[in-house]
Structures are given as structure tokens and as C-alpha cells.
Design brief:
Blueprint lengths: L1 H10 L3 H7 L8 H12 L7 H13 L13 E2 L4 E2 H8 L4 H11 L15 H13 L9 H13 L7 H7 L5
Antiparallel strand pairs: 1-2
Length: about 170
């Protein structure tokens, strides 16, 4: 996080410029998008998938206020989805999920490119929700266990994120 903040200062982008680089406008309501995505694809057994998507956006990009300027950075879009996992999961999307998204949003996620996630919060959140649909583990009811699941399944051991970072970025402390 400190590295990202230093890079943010170094590049001197304004908050508005950072948000625009994710396809966010002043009218964008990220939580509403998360809710609509989970209305389409399911909110999970604990009814927390929408909250989880919103928290992931918080952990990954400070809800669109932190920009990763790392050249060739791994993640893209508001959810900072990595390229290899995106295409790996995309090749295994369930037809029923693709059909629901096509009917609900008129978007064919089976033909979406990783680059399209950069400027489309909706496509980024859809890809993130589809990613978690592939796991048997339910999305936890509480933030601490969601933070642990994010670290284990999304940020993974290769990522710099920590459970503490996730909680801090979502203004929660243990």
C-alpha cells in the first residue's frame, strides 16, 4: 500500500483522474453495481457476495482512489484482476452464468478481453464474481473471514496484500 501511495504521489494524478482511469464517473455507484451483479449471479449462501465484491474493490484500489503505476502491473480494472487467472477462469465459465449475464446486462463475458476490465467497473466486478463462483467455499458472513478468503483465493501468496490491509482499506480493525 505504501508503495502504491508513493507511486501515486510520484505521478501526481488527481483523485478524479485516478477514478477516470478505472472508468468511474461521479455518478458511478460501485456498491449498486456489486448488488446488481450479485442479483444476477447470486449473493451466496450468507448473502454477502455483494459486500465481498465491494470490499475487494476497497482492498485492491481503495474503491477507485489508488492507482497502481507499476509498469506492466499484474492486475487491471477496479478489482485489479490478474491476466492469467482471468483467462483461466474465463475458459471454464458455466454456460448458465454466461446466459444470465447476457440476458441481464447484454454482455458476453465469454468474449470479454482482460483489457476491457480496465475501463469497465461492471465487467471487472462481473469477472470477480465469476471467479469466486468457481470455488466451493461459501463467501463468509463476517469481514475477518472474507479478508482471509480474499488473501487465500484472490490475492494469494504471490500478492503483497494482507488480511490487515484488507481490513484497513475497508475501515475495519481486528
Amino acid at each position: 500500500v505504501e508503495c502504491l501511495r508513493a507511486l501515486q504521489r510520484e505521478k501526481t494524478m488527481t483523485k478524479i483522474e485516478i477514478q477516470e482511469s478505472y472508468g468511474i464517473t461521479p455518478q458511478t455507484n460501485l456498491m449498486a453495481i456489486c448488488q446488481e451483479v450479485c442479483e444476477c449471479l447470486g449473493n451466496g449462501i450468507n448473502n454477502t457476495a455483494d459486500i465481498f465484491m465491494y470490499e475487494i474493490i476497497g482492498a485492491e484500489t481503495g474503491h477507485g482512489t489508488i492507482r497502481d503505476f507499476t509498469k506492466g502491473s499484474a492486475g487491471t480494472g477496479i478489482c485489479q484482476f490478474d491476466k492469467l487467472p482471468f483467462y483461466d477462469r474465463q475458459s471454464r465459465y458455466e454456460d448458465s452464468h454466461i446466459k444470465k449475464i447476457l440476458e441481464h446486462f447484454d454482455i458476453d463475458m465469454s468474449n470479454c478481453t482482460w483489457e476491457e476490465l480496465e475501463l469497465s467497473p461492471l465487467k471487472s466486478i462481473l469477472a470477480c464474481r465469476l471467479y469466486f463462483k468457481a470455488f466451493e467455499e461459501p463467501i463468509p458472513a463476517d469481514i475477518l473471514n472474507r479478508a482471509k478468503q480474499w488473501k487465500e483465493l484472490y490475492n494469494t501468496e504471490d500478492g503483497d496484500g494482507t488480511v490487515e490491509h484488507y481490513l484497513k482499506m475497508n475501515e475495519i480493525s481486528e
